[in-house]
Amino acid sequence: MAASYRKARVKNMAFCRWILIGVFGVVFLVLLLRTNTFIDLISRYSLETDETLGSNHNYTLSSEKNLKLPKQNEFSISLEKRNQMPPRNLDLYPTLAKNHIIIVLYVHNRPQYLRLAVDSLSRVVGISETLLIVSHDGYFEEMNKIVENIRFCQVKQIFAPFSPHLFVNSFPGVSRNDCKDKDDTAKKKCDGTPDQYGNHRSPKIVSLKHHWWWMMNTVWDGLKETSGHLGHILFIEEDHFIYPNAYRNLQLLIELKPKKCPHCYAANLAPSDVKSRGEGWESLIAERMGNVGYTFNRTVWQKIHRKAREFCTFDDYNWDITMWATVYPSFGGPVYTLRGPRTSAVHFGKCGLHQGQGERSACIDNGVLNFEVEDVDKVPNIKSGWGVYVYKDQAGYQAGFRGWGGWGDIRDRQLCLKFAKMYEASEAGIV
Q: Rounded CA gap, 71 and 47, in Å?
């Protein structure tokens, strides 16, 4: 009798011990989940799948009152409403292919270039399977008309409602009391914070970085069509010529990336050196991420988004240099992208973003292409059996570069940070 009692007591004590261990384990796990270190570790090892998100996302636009965004004029408000319109051409292409790669084309005001880019896209094999989103930096009628004539796929237009181009007499455009050039703020009693070189903001210049950051936040977190998208999104610009095999090559790269280059963050259509057409080797290439035809998934976007302060406070008006010099280095290791040995996209523009707006003759090449598409560029030319050559210690902008300036005004930095908070994400079933 006593022996059986002791056995029962031992069993009860062992059971209680396991309960205590389980409780402490749950508490420890909760504490880990609350730390950024744990989140970064998860991100590092889940570049190919978005395991932290479910398929159902519920995104809501934060109120302007809470964020204190610039007061909008009627045109800005109308464009913001227009962003919620469904894609066009749904009657022609009612469904999207499974595992499609969304394409985002971000544009400024270079219609002579946009026509060439759109024409190249119309010849891309597989383009009808996906959604094309065109993001405008403000509103320009000729640019709008070009996009409205697209018939080769589903297409959705979005317009940056806080583009400096839409605000004539107030920030983020030019305010009446704004400092100019190298004005002394105290002596002139004007508004503005100079950059590290003593220059005050130029609305046309800062719009580059504002548009890119607004677009990224909106495409990933603010549109019904993309908020649940767990795959990759391709980003191109209006002066990028896309080869017919680009979409199929990109599908192959994304499929091969987990096996061939699991530490790669992205896939690129073109080399990081915009003058290069590729090595022509029988090998895949891993190198620093370029700014022509780059694509990544939501997990990578979340890593970028967590670096909003680094992005928004770095004194350089170029979004890509900001990424190379401060955001990517903050990830704690090399940021590689995977591409083929032959380019599938070309940067053809020689006219700067703010040259030639309203003066077409200012573009020295007049938007004329000086190359031909060869037969090898019309079919997929990436082989699954290839190995990967890794470029290490490449030249280019690195951590420690101070920036070219143009982004010193505290108002621009604050607006940039507010863009990062525009959309509040909540996951179904998670508090």
A: 38
Q: Distance between alpha carbon 391 and the CA centroid of its chain, in Å? A: 23
What CATH number corresponds to the domain at position 107?
A: 3.90.550.10
Total domain count, the chain: 1
Report H helices in 275-399.
298-305, 308-313, 319-322
Tell me if 1 is assigned to some domain. no
Phi then psi for 105, rounded to 5 degrees? -110, 110
pLDDT tens sequence across 45-72: 445 444 333 334 444 455 455 788 999 9
In sequence order, the 6+-apart residues with CB closer than 8 A to the CB of 188 are 179
Q: What is the mean pLDDT of residues 384-412?
A: 93
Give the HSE-up count for residue 309: Cα atoms under 13 Å, Cβ half-sphere.
2
Range of the domain at 356: 35-427
Q: Are 154 and 90 in contact (CB under 8 A)?
A: yes
pLDDT tens-digit readout, 249-294:
999 999 999 999 999 999 999 999 988 999 999 999 999 999 999 9
